[in-house]
Design brief:
The chain is α/β, with parallel strands linked by helices. It has helices at about 30-45, 70-75, 90-115, 125-135, 155-165, 175-185, 200-205, 210-215, 240-255, 270-285, 300-305, 325, 330, 360-370, 370-380, 390-400, 405-410; strands at about 20-30, 50-55, 80-85, 115-120, 140-145, 170, 190-195, 225-230, 260-265, 290-295, 315-320, 335-340, 350-355, 420, 420-424. The chain is about 40% helix and about 15% strand. It has a seven-stranded parallel sheet with strand order 3-2-1-4-5-6-7, with helices on both faces.
């Protein structure tokens, strides 16, 4: 479903650059990351002093993970560089392969584009490759969503914090994250608490209507609906098949009870293909009430979550995607978070954490659909990521930040002195 937006890039094959404008390269490596970056890219596109150059890579170019170039083009953005990254998505060695080949390929793209700054997002290995390339080429680099915690074994924290120490500007989703970055010794003027960019679009109501959802997905809104996405846990990638099999067993049992399930493919992490194979196997059996998609698209995905705003609809987000933690509070949508992948992440009161156990998953989902007190708490939960206008804030800060030696030359604010055994 095409988003209803209007940017100055729509239907343009080429964009003339104002010689006085800063040229900002934006890197995206997979569908989920792009959905979060969309408001930032849109704000940069609309800013009178900025021009974007979009670098698309990773799973966007891989048909096995729901090749999502069409979504970007439908949103009206010009793709300036397509950078293929070598990766088989089966082992941890593939991450090394992706980062190594990505650094070289993205470096070539940056040499061609000659941006004044690069913007990268979060904690993905593709973004890590882009950030290493840019910072080693002396290109000022802005990092979004640093300082968060996810201690569930996905290697996210290690990658995210390493990216923080290389980046020149930091845009965080919450004050706790900003405090952690300051605790790493980053200079305070580099750190900006702007909120979670994806909420910008949600606040604008830029998502599918109930009528569009019924038409496109053939759903009956009188019956419960589950949105399901489960990624592999990188340090446990060899257990991905067993872990998702437990979840899928619960989904099949729920479908037998009349619950409608919309399942989407995982990321292209190590172990991701094993999960994809299990989804394909389930889909081949044409189970009544279960639909499997490579990529649902942000517009439709948020539209389904938005149904939870109406108490008469029974919607639940199930799996281990970060969207179940960060995006669902805006809609008051109940979430069943399976396993350890999102451990440590800041969350609202709409999240039920469960282990890989079929009966526990079933019980948590039934709580989401039947427990009136919990459903009311979900609709009233605070959103720890909401500040508003994150995209515009980021674009304004980038536009007003001088590109000079002070920006490029980073300094450590921690002296390393010891007091009572504690190093400060």
């Amino acid at each position: 479903m095409e988003s209803k937006i209007n940017t100055k890039a729509i239907n343009c094959e080429a964009t003339m650059t104002n010689i006085n404008n800063k040229v900002i390269a934006v890197f995206t490596g997979n569908r989920a990351e792009y959905g979060l970056q969309f408001p930032v890219l849109k704000a940069i596109d609309m800013h009178p002093k900025l021009d974007y150059r979009l670098i698309v890579s990773g799973a966007h170019l891989d048909k096995n993970f729901g090749q999502t170039l069409d979504e970007i083009k439908k949103d009206g953005f010009r793709i300036d560089e397509e950078v293929k990254i070598q990766m088989d998505a089966e082992t941890l060695e593939s991450n090394v392969q992706a980062i190594g080949s990505g650094i070289i390929s993205i470096g070539k793209a940056l040499t061609k584009l000659k941006p004044d700054m690069l913007v990268v997002y979060a904690d993905r290995f593709e973004g890590m490759a882009a950030l290493v390339a840019s910072t080693q080429m002396g290109i000022p680099t802005a990092h979004i969503e640093g300082g968060d915690l996810t201690e569930g074994g996905a290697l996210d924290d290690s990658v995210r914090h390493a990216m923080t120490k290389l980046a020149h500007l930091h845009f965080t989703t919450n004050q706790q994250a900003s405090n952690r970055i300051l605790g790493m010794g980053e200079e305070s003027w580099r750190v900006h608490t702007v909120g979670f960019p994806a909420i910008d679009l949600i606040s604008e109501g830029n998502y599918a209507s109930p009528e569009e959802i019924i038409s496109c997905l053939n759903l009956d809104l009188d019956n419960p609906i589950i949105l399901f996405t489960q990624h592999s846990v990188t340090t446990e990638f060899d257990a991905a098949t067993d872990q998702v099999s437990t979840s899928l067993g619960a989904l099949e049992a729920l479908a037998d009870q009349g619950v409608q399930v919309i399942a989407t493919y995982p990321n292209n992490d190590a172990g991701g293909m094993a999960i994809t194979n299990k989804l394909d196997e389930m889909n081949s059996r044409s189970i009544s009430g279960i639909q499997v998609y490579r990529s649902l698209g942000r517009y439709m995905y948020h539209g389904i979550l938005a149904l939870a705003k109406n108490p008469k609809y029974r919607i639940a987000c199930v799996g281990n995607s970060s969207s179940g933690i960060k995006e669902t509070p805006v809609f008051g949508c109940p979430t069943v978070n399976i396993g350890s992948r999102q451990k440590g992440r800041l969350r609202g009161k709409n999240v039920i954490d469960v282990k890989y156990d079929k009966q526990t998953i079933l019980g948590a989902v039934q709580t989401c659909f039947r427990d009136k007190d919990f459903r009311k708490a979900c609709r009233e939960t605070d959103n720890p990521y909401y500040l508003g206008d994150a995209g515009k804030k980021i674009a304004d800060i980038i536009a007003s930040t001088p590109i000079n030696e002070k920006l490029i030359r980073k300094r450590m604010t921690l002296s390393g002195e010891s007091k009572n055994g504690w190093y400060r």
